[in-house]
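Same chain as my last thread, 175 residues:
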Amino acid sequence: MRNTTFTKTLARGLFGAGLVVALAAPTLAAPEGCWSRQYSDAHLARQPAQVVAAAWLSFHFDQDHDQLFAMLSVVTTNQGHVRGTANANMFVDQGLLCWPNTARGADAWSCAIDGDGGGFEITRMDAKVLEFRTRHLLMGNFEDNTGPVVNLAEQAWTDVTYRLYRADDAACETN
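reply #2:
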């Protein structure tokens, strides 16, 4: 059974107080599989604020808890707000809780980190491309500050979209 209080509270904090989250929506196509991208040097040169050099995103449905989870792994760049810091050129991963967000559309999904770590909205998903948008997504050990923490938003509270491509499941298993 889903923790509806947690999900609604988390969704309100991330995406506005007026959001209504529909928890039982069996007709929605859940995200699945592995999505990845290694951004080219040319792409990063055109996007000097981007902090992600490579990303892997996979989804897992936990039938015991009737809940969709995502695992996001990234390698950061040495540009944007991480340039010259301990957060440049590092690998970090983060688990997220996902839910159907019918307030945004019939096939809309959102994912968030437990606590105040932020989240993302899937804005496009087809057979080859998945795009997610975030304005606040902390990667790393943000709860007790014992490890590196990087915000994937290029500027705090400003939308940024990352485009990933369908990949073999093995690509996500090795990261």
